[in-house]
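Justification of resources, computational component.

The compute hours requested in this renewal are based largely on the per-chain cost of generating structure records like the one below. Each record pairs the submitted sequence with a full structure-token output. That output is archived, and it is also reused by downstream analysis tasks.
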Amino acid sequence: MERLKCMVVDDEHKAIALMRKYIRGRPDLLLVHATADPRGIAALVRQYGVALLFLDLEMPGINGLEILAQLGERIRVVVCTAHADRGSECIDAGAVDFLVKPFDRARFGRAVDRAKQKGKEGMRQVLLDDGRLVLPGIGKGKFIQLLLDDVDYIEADEHTVVIHTIEATLQGGIAIGELEKLLPPNKFLRIHKSYIVALDRMRRVESGRLHGMRLQSDIGLPVGLTYKAALLDYLNRRMPGGPNDGSTDG
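The structure output for this chain reads:
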């Protein structure tokens, strides 16, 4: 098995000790260097051939975002921070993921898996975790972040998507089919080649032929022939023993 060379930069020695422990538990990782000194990181990355960097966000004299800017896209970086609201900023700066302190071994493992996957697929990898959706925006280096619970429906726009939320409309640089694979099936359903809906936003399916749907926001959407069976299955599971023609006022 090829082991990914990694490095830890954190001004807290307890944090470094924890990362050492987590890294030792991963046979696919090899810790080549750990330091509490944030100076000269770019040179150390080159010296040790680092492929994955775990980087603290707030350190004396320099912060992780400045180091990210120095590194560019040469390596994969996971930012570690105590500030949950800085996640989108870290992704915008080029991080593949961000860990909010304190984090457990399972969350660390998901960050590693994402970093490895991003190495295969490039910087368009979508991140989905803990009720948040972080995905590429339109334009190089642009990302958007939102809560899944805020999504009303998603609309295809050629090779990108338009995400309609309770308060805003956002455009993501990802195809609707690619995004569909990442959304939790207990919360979202594809009803048309151009539409995915949040199940808790459904208000009414129009007519027994299932040709249309109306959301709680009073938006009307079409139901495609290919997707009627999946919608009907959901409605029947939602209303066991009820009518199976797809009509509902729920």
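Residues 242-250 have pLDDT under 50 and may be disordered. Residues 4-125 form a domain with the Rossmann fold fold (CATH 3.40.50.2300).
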